[in-house]
Amino acid sequence: EKGGYDYFMLKEIAEQPRAVADTLLGRIGADGRLSLDEMRISDQALREVDKVVIVACGTANHAGLIAKYAIEHWAGLPCEVELAHEFRYRDPILSRNTLVIAISQSGETMDTLMAVRHAREQHAKVLGVCNVNGSTLPRECDGVLYTHAGPEIAVASTKAFLTQLVAVYLIALYLAQVRGTKWGDEVFAMIQLLAQMPDKVEKVLETMGPVRDLARSLADAPSVLFLGRHVGFPVALEGALKLKELAYMHAEGFAAGELKHGPIALIEEGLPVIVVVPPRARAVLHDKIVSNIQEIRARGARTIVIAEEGDDAVRPYADTLIEVPAVPTLLQPLVTTVPLQVFACELATAKGHDVDQPRNLAKSVTVE
Ligand code: F6R
Q: Which sites are catalytic (predicted)?
């Protein structure tokens, strides 16, 4: 059942190109436009939306954080992202024209379900993003967009996360398509590019040998930091979460711009810092992070840099360089997350941990 792999997690990481392809399947028409008929929220209702609020926990929340960048940019809608358990104990301002998107692999996370109920009481429209057919979440939402990752057995989310990203990109692009935005051409081009993502993810998987070697060499590190900017920031959070839950190691993700506001004080000789670098095409973001890498390296950090292939500007400052295929900035999490999953999985295995069943964790958290 593990398909020749030692752990379900390894199998699920390897399945990601297929999972991404399946989540795209049937959703891009021959005319290059998206059709999300199963969503059951009318185009008219989507045109009336004036705000998007995303609720989710853990890894699914990281998918939500990435969705914010996509929804604001392509659909031109204000978007807030909330931890479901925080959202429902506040007094969030929602209306009939608020679109609440609840993201949950299992569809059974109690905190997320309670947030959905809270949103519906206030007459918001609720769209679920869910991986499990017949689970509770889809029944409680106005509409649902299923991810087609297939059953995810390992406790730590991998392929579900990548398919959640695909789902939220589809939602952002679909909102742009039905509402019409100034980015019409870009939206059309992005839909085409999404179709190439399974191949790009496959390319990343083919080059993971050095990442595994690196992970084993860091098994005794006391702590690992992760830095990113823009959508690389949630990717950094996700990389840190994977390491915490699998390797039981101290790990933290930061927005690179936040360094000088505090975290740079943590940098000391030999501290491994993994940095997710935006594409060179986003020169402003890219150049800023290159200076961040220089700053931490000057203070002794061991820099592990994830950058697009051919990025020669980062090479001189990278103790280890992990190259990923060049893709547009907003889609980059689909390729930059994969090395972080492999890294955490390998490091945890080197420490002798069962990566499928990390201590103290359950696959779905059905209590509040
Ligand atoms: C981390 C992980 C958890 C889940 C979270 C939400 O690897 O798996 O953080 O993402 O518990 O679960 P779902 O998506 O089922 O609502």
A: 363 (for fru-6p isomerization activity)
> Which amino acids bring their CB within 6 angstroms of ligand 1?
57-60, 104-106, 109, 112, 156-157, 241, 245, 364-365
Supply the pLDDT for residue 122: 95
Token readout for 24 is: 């795209």
Ligand 1 center to residue 357 CA distance, Å?
13
- Distance between CA atoms of 165 and 170, rounded to whole angstroms? 9
Distance CA 99, CA 104 (A): 16
Sign of CA dihedral 8, 323, 254, 112: negative
- Residue to mutate, 105, 168, 242, 246, ligand 1, most ligand atoms under 8 Å from C-beta: 105
Q: DSSP label at 258?
A: G
Spacing of C-alpha 64 from chain mean position: 7
Measured between alpha carbons, how far is 304 from 156 in angstroms, rounded to an integer?
23
Evaluated on CA atoms 108, 112, 114, 118, the torsion sign reads negative
- Is 260 designated active site? no
CA 59 to ligand 1: nearest atom: 10
**153, two tokens:** 């057995």
* First-to-last C-alpha distance (Å) of the chain: 32
Query: DSSP letter at 136?
Result: H
Cα gap 322→339, rounded to integer Å: 8
Query: Is residue 186 very low, low, confident or very high in pLDDT (cuts 50, 70, 90)?
Result: confident
- What is the Rg, in whole angstroms, of the alpha carbon atoms belonging to the chain? 20
**Looking at this predicted complex, what is its ipTM?**
0.96
* Among the listed residues 334, 326, 325, 341, the one whose alpha carbon sits nearest the alpha carbon of residue 274: 341
> Which atom of ligand 1 lies nearest, measured to the CA of 105?
14
Q: How many separate helices (H) and strands (E) can be counted in the chain?
A: 14, 10
Cα 33 to middle of ligand 1, angstroms: 31
In the predicted structure, residue 182 carries a pLDDT above the cut 80: no
CA-to-CA dists, residue 81 to 21, 39, 75, 96, 364, angstroms = 26, 21, 16, 18, 21
